[in-house]
Prior knowledge:
alpha/beta; 5-stranded parallel β-sheet; about 35% helix
Amino acid sequence: MADVKLIAFDLDDTLFNKKKEITPETLETLERAASMGIEIVPATGRFWRAVPENLRALDFVRYAITLNGAAIFDIKAMKTLAEFMITVEQAVTMCRVFDDLPVIYDFVADGEGFMKREHYDSLADFMYGQWQTEIVRKMRTPVNDVYEILMTKKGVQKMQIYTLDNDLRENLLKSFPNVFPKLLFTSSVPNNIEINDTKAHKGHGLKFIAEYLGIPISSTLAFGDGLNDMSMIETAGIGVAMGNACPELLRAAKYVTNDCENNGVSEGIKKFCF
């Protein structure tokens, strides 16, 4: 049994099953870990308001890594502990690039999501599934002029593009980092690319929270399934890939647990904590 003092986990396809549920077994395991004094820390690409209520309501969750590490919160104190943003100038440049591509895009600033109205109206043509369409529609505000909105912001926490053209997505994931070295490009689902400041990644967020709480990074346990979890899995004392994780994460992880449909997070916690 490892000396685990902090457990961090991605949400979609990691903690949550395909129905966006926390299974009773997984919830019981989290409660047991929390009762032992272990910090339970969600680490998600979503902004906090977009996190499902079934997790937000858990009274033993105090800290959260959100927007891939762009915003780190003390939930109980309603306080932002750290924030790492894309500059407005960088965001404008990226939007102009996106405008010339067959994609739709959005951005998050001040904890609120924005999207071009015509993109908002064509969501279903670019989304991975109905669940994703519903989440994006609920959590994005359609606007006539994204540039006008951008100019009112102090910075952008996260940007995201969507395409069902996998070849285009793969090519952009390879080419963007060379053209825009001051930005970080990752992905969490098969139809998106997520853009953050280079310090806004889950690994940095995990390290920040651990240091803030005085916990050695060697005493952290982390779970993930997507490319945007890679830095966290590599940073954690024990990095665990879900059985349904992407190939890159499966290769990087120290341990592979069961998939999100079969209580993989619960299985991993029991292995290393109980």
